[in-house]
Write a structure and sequence with these properties.
The protein has one domain: Alpha-Beta Complex (Spore Coat Polysaccharide Biosynthesis Protein SpsA, Chain A). It is an alpha/beta fold and 235 residues long. The two termini are 30 Å apart. Helix 2 links the parallel strand 4 and strand 5. The longest helix is centred in the last third of the chain and has 20 residues. Helices cover 35% and strands 23% of the residues. The protein is globular and about 50 Å long.
Length: 235
């Protein structure tokens, strides 16, 4: 897309405790390839210029050998160690960008069904708006509950979305947002604020509206053993 430069940060530093496996979920196999491979391959085959892979402590060499080299992923420009929380891993990925970059894609490596159409839609939108997230309208009725489990309200289903990744931002916008987050993380923790996605960081610290972009109902996150069975069917 012209002279625009893009970088994808793929997060693969999670423990995946709900998977009930001794192997981290991003390395579990779907049709003889690790879950992580599929989203990396999607970025590799897209318009994205560079990829940063963020991995768990001590896993850099393993990933370079068993993922990057084994599958010939040439656009992975850096493999860096993640942090304690997801937002630390994102911040470390952002700090690793030391080359020209206009827009950053942030994607969970446990979402293997990313495809070129989703990437293209997100890229076109971020050029227009500067901040967008992939998601899909929810199919079920959503209830807001109080601390005791009683229904407080029922949002209009037509205006509720389930959020996915990638989440895409102008580089300077997301980098500044995350630096503010790291500077204030202790205060936020004391206030009980939990950071659940990248859009929230931009909304909270930069007061910038984030556009929703259609993803796919197949763009699931592999979290439980049941998800892995669904993924086998999708592949």
């Amino acid at each position: 897309m012209g002279d625009i430069r893009t970088t994808a940060i793929v997060l693969a530093a999670g423990q995946g405790k709900r998977m009930q496996s001794s192997v981290h979920k991003q390395y579990l196999l779907i049709r003889e390839k690790p879950i992580l491979y599929y989203s990396l391959k999607a970025f590799e085959d897209s318009e994205i210029d560079d990829i940063i892979l963020v991995v768990g402590e001590g896993e850099e060499s393993f990933c370079k050998k068993e993922i990057v080299d084994r599958y010939g992923l040439r656009r992975i420009r850096a493999v860096v160690e993640g942090g304690k929380e997801r937002y630390h891993s994102v911040a470390y990925g952002l700090r690793a960008i030391c080359w020209p970059c206009d827009y950053v894609f942030i994607h969970d490596g446990a979402r293997p069904f990313l495809d070129g159409a989703i990437i293209k839609r997100a890229l076109e939108e971020v050029v227009e708006s500067g901040a967008c997230v992939v998601g899909m309208p929810v199919k079920d009725t959503i209830k807001i509950a109080d601390d005791e489990g009683f229904v407080v309200s029922t949002p209009n289903r037509s205006r509720t979305w389930q959020i996915q990744t990638p989440q895409v931002f102008a580089r300077q916008l997301i980098a500044k947002a995350y630096e503010k987050l790291l500077a204030q993380e202790q205060e936020l923790s004391a206030e009980g604020v939990t950071v659940t996605d990248d859009a929230m960081v931009v909304e909270y610290f930069m007061k910038v509206p984030v556009k929703l972009v259609p993803g796919s109902y197949k763009n699931i996150k592999i979290t439980t053993p049941e998800d892995l069975k669904v993924a086998e069917v999708f592949v």
